[in-house]
Each structure stands twice: as C-alpha cells, then as structure tokens.
Amino acid sequence: MKTTAEKKLYEGMFLVDSARAASDWDGINAVIRKILEKAKAEIVSMKKWDDRKLAYNIRGIERGTYILCYFKAEGQKIQEIETSVRLSEKIIRALILSTEQMTKEDIEKDTPAAKAEKEKQKPLSEPPQEAEPGSRSDQQEEPQPEQDQIFDEAQSPEDEDIEPAQETENIE
Fold first, then answer.
1. What is the mean pLDDT of residues 53-62?
2. Could you tell me which of 58, 67, 69, 124 has the fewest CB atoms within 10 Å of its CB?
3. Which whole number is the average pLDDT over 63-78?
C-alpha cells in the first residue's frame, strides 16, 4: 500500500542573471518548470518579481532577475528541488519557504516588475502635478517661537538655586 504525502503550498524565489533572463526568458522559465515538474510539484503561479543590482557580485554577476513562483509539493521533495537548483548553471540562488497561509489574492498581487510595467503603459496625457508656490514643500521650516519659549522657561533662574549633591566619605 503506497501512501501519498499531502502537497503543501510553497513560495520559491529564484535568482537568475539579468542578461541571461533578458536574452532567454523562456529558457529560464523552462529550467525552473523542469526542476519543479521533476519533483512532481504543481505550479500555481510563476512571474518575474523584479530586476535589481545585487548587493555583491555572485559568480561575476552584478544584476539579477528574481522570479517568484508558488507551487504545491510534498515536503520530502523540497530537498530534491534545492539540490537541482544548486546543480543548475542558469539559476544563481533560490529560497523556498512554506506559505500555507497565503490566499489566492496574495498570490495574484502585482510584483514590483508588474507595477513598473503598468507605470510605463499609463497614458502621457496626464502631466505630473507640480507643487503650488505656496505649498508646504517649498517653504523652509522655521523654529516656532512657542518651542523656544518653553525651552527658555525650563532654564529659569530658579534652577540655579539648587545646591550640588555633597560627597560622602566611607567610614568603616
């Protein structure tokens, strides 16, 4: 009798070289799909998350493209997926987390890359609004007299009458 483990929802963030992703996007997606399908994972969603400069060079690569993937898999298969990712020449790094609490709405939210794409596609008929000359952003803030007055009252001459604490000698 063969028992099947329950498939859980996982979130995978895959980092690939931006130059390679730009030239062979379908190939990169195919590699990730192949790794997940080999582990009998069911892909729920896979999309470009963002393209960013890396904090430090990895294998001589300065920019990376992040691919966000949600998939359902058995818990024992995650190690197999991570091993396949490490052996892949196209995937630089990957992070896989359990995300059972994610809702369908959370999964379908726009990624930073999708938001940037929508911004590019907005019609240019709407000019950006400029700040009015009397708006608060154009004015430099000056210290308010009320605050200065409160500070002056705190240093009143009455404070000068306080005697310093006397030192005590240890007597044995």
1. 89
2. 124
3. 92
CA distances from 109 to 11, 14, 46, 64 (A): 14, 18, 12, 21
Which of 72, 52, 69 lies closest to 13 in space, CA to CA? Answer: 69
Query: 113 or 95: whose pLDDT is higher?
Result: 95
Residue 65 has pLDDT above 50, yes or no: yes
Tally of CB atoms within 10 A around 67: 24
Paired tokens of 6: 């329950």
| Angle subtended by helix axes 78-87 and 25-38, to nearest 10 | 140
Closest CA to 71 of 36, 103, 106, 101: 36
With a threshold of 0.70, does the pTM exceed it?
A: no
Residues forming beta bridges with residue 67, ordered by sequence position: 14, 48
């396949």: which residue's tokens? 84
Closest CA to 65 of 45, 92, 86: 92
Would the pLDDT of 138 be above 60?
no
DSSP 37-72: HHTT-EEEEEEEEEEEEEEEEETTEEEEEEEEEEEE
